[in-house]
Design goal:
The structure holds two protein chains of two kinds. Chain A is mainly beta. Chain A contains three helices and 21 strands. In chain A, strand 13 and strand 14 form a beta hairpin. The two termini of chain A are 29 Å apart. Chain B is α/β, with parallel strands linked by helices. Chain B has a five-stranded mixed β-sheet with strand order 3-2-4-1-5. Chain B is built from five helices and five strands, in the order αβαβααβαββ. Chain B is globular. Classes of the chains: A mainly beta, B alpha/beta. Chains A and B meet through strand 3, strand 4, strand 5 and strand 17 of A and helix 1, helix 2 and helix 4 of B.
């Protein structure tokens, strides 16, 4: 398809979205079933390097998200929910349609001041403020989440997987407390995760047998102040293919993150700080055990009910390159960190249609997707990225 | 002097101190809800989807008006101490992660009164004074 046909098609899609019914409520709602969904297309351009497809000095269209979500309450004591997700993000994510999650939630104890519930199925992993809804544009503060804490290249290590979880929530005079626990078995990890930890998409496979997550949250009763501490322990083993230069090995990924959010009227201040620990051992190589440092501080101002401006500084520093094995091969020093200034604007044209524009000024390349940038020697240290996104909910 | 006014408005907006809209809003429930009154915390727990049942075990059916409806903004600010955008964030995070069902959105106050009257366990709100005997006013204490 020629480029102008593609743009014409997208313009027609946008026009159709603008003309669609303008409500933020689910498209289907009967007594005990709600169905809702979203579609989002993002245009990306970069001054150097590639992000989610070929974007350097061109307008990349490689980032698309869509989802349909259903929440069914067959009985007051049972909630069944699932989401089908379509996502493409350059070479980093080409799996297209997938079951994002499908879970049964059983609130087995509920009082006015507290709830205990169990959930099972393919469940989302609680981590930080945004992990559980990271693929839904309307729940994110910006087009891209701060990559230091939510880096896309390791997303499938701690996203959603078959397993079980426990949630407790209770109110006290000192505010509301929440504990969320999860134990899951992710199975085979994708090429992007492999490239992130092992330098490239290797001939063998990376399997994860168990991932554990724990989160403690506290908020004031009016939800104006929120504090959370999240911890994830993800482990995987590498099974080499015949003739593989790498031997069998193990990867340990243990991120923890401290989150804080404060609503001051129309201003929302958010910060998250984490120290992910990455370990690689065996592989017929010396063992690697590093702690990286990730943090961001973000301010969002709801200028008017339909307009929001955002400013963020995001920093990620690793003593080694994000793929520690590749670090042994002498990649440029700036591939060990990234400092990202982000400015963004959100306009809710209607309750159902959201437009966003975002500008990133980045120094360093640590969270650049390795699959979109196969040659680290060609990466540029200082680069800019502009993004435009249209999202429609139905 | 005239130029000071937009600046002042801007400062008030930044601080979230814009004056409340005129007119009071009251909480209404279906007549089968036995609660004599409700605390601000419980009302907030219901509207942030944390509490889904009345003390007698009956499921709560939550009704709202659109995010940009002035009555909804007044309800959120004066009775919950929150902004409509905060409520929307909480609902989206819970529903898109499969942990809850969003409140049912209605198009007008008239429909609100009709649906609260017709739905067992329903809660909603309307502009005071409410001269409708089919719903019950629930005082917030």
């Amino acid at each position: 398809m020629c480029a102008c046909c593609r743009y014409a098609k997208r313009a027609a899609l946008l026009a159709a979205l603008a003309a669609a019914p303008a409500a933020a409520d689910p498209f289907y709602q009967s007594g005990n079933l709600q169905l809702q969904g979203f579609v989002a297309q993002t245009l990306i351009t970069t001054s150097r390097n590639n992000f989610f497809g070929r974007t350097q000095d061109t307008l990349g269209t490689g980032f698309t998200e869509a989802g349909v979500n259903g929440v069914w309450q067959p009985h007051p004591g049972l909630l069944v929910a699932g989401q089908m997700l379509y996502r493409r993000a350059g070479k980093n994510d080409q799996r297209n349609v997938r079951l994002d999650y499908l879970q049964a939630v059983w609130p087995f104890w509920q009082r006015a001041d507290g709830t205990l519930e169990l959930r099972a199925g393919k469940i989302k992993i609680p981590y930080g403020l945004y992990n559980e809804t990271r693929d839904v544009p309307f729940t994110r503060p910006s087009i891209l989440l701060p990559e230091s804490i939510y880096f896309d290249t390791a997303r499938n290590f701690a996203l959603a997987a078959p397993g079980a979880g426990f949630n407790a929530r209770w109110q006290t005079a000192l505010g509301e407390w929440q504990v969320n626990l999860a134990a899951v078995r992710p199975g085979q990890l994708d090429a992007a995760t492999e490239a992130n930890f092992l330098g490239s998409d290797r001939p063998g496979h990376l399997y994860s047998n168990a991932t554990y997550a724990a989160q403690l949250r506290w908020s004031t009763m009016d939800q104006s102040t929120l504090l959370a501490l999240s911890w994830v322990d993800a482990r995987a083993r590498y099974q080499p293919a015949p003739g593989d230069p790498l031997g069998a090995g193990k990867v340990g990924y243990t991120p923890w993150v401290l989150s804080a959010q404060k609503h001051l009227g129309t201003v929302t201040l958010t910060t998250e700080y984490g120290c992910p620990r990455i370990r690689l051992y065996d592989f017929n190589l010396p063992a690697i055990d590093v702690r990286t440092r990730a943090w961001y501080v973000q301010g969002a101002w709801h200028i008017r009910p339909r307009w929001e401006a955002l400013l963020r500084y995001d920093s990620y520093i690793s003593p080694l390159k994000n793929n520690p094995l590749a670090a042994l091969s002498g990649n440029p020093y700036f591939s060990r960190y990234a400092k990202d200034w982000t400015a963004g604007l959100r306009w809710d044209v209607t309750p159902a249609l959201m437009l966003r524009a975002e500008f990133h000024h980045v120094t360093g390349t640590i969270w650049l997707p390795a699959l979109d940038n196969p040659n680290p020697q060609q990466e540029g240290r200082v680069w800019n990225m502009g993004l435009l996104q249209a999202s429609w909910r139905f | 002097m005239v130029r000071l006014r937009p600046l002042l408005t801007l400062a008030l907006l930044v601080l979230g101190l814009q004056p409340a809209l005129a007119g009071a809003v009251d909480v209404i429930v279906n007549r089968d809800v036995q609660l004599p009154q409700i605390s601000e915390n419980t009302l907030r727990a219901i509207y942030t989807l944390r509490q889904t049942r009345w003390p007698d075990g009956q499921p709560i059916h939550v009704f709202v008006l659109a995010d940009d409806d002035p009555l909804h903004a007044e309800f959120a600010k004066s009775l919950l101490g929150m902004y409509p955008y905060q409520l929307r964030q909480i609902w989206d995070q819970l529903t898109f992660s499969g942990m809850g069902q969003a409140p049912e959105q209605l198009s007008s106050q008239r429909e609100m009164l009709r649906r609260v009257a017709a739905t067992p366990g329903a809660i909603g709100y309307a502009a005071a004074p409410i001269g409708n005997e089919h719903v019950r006013l629930l005082p917030v204490r």
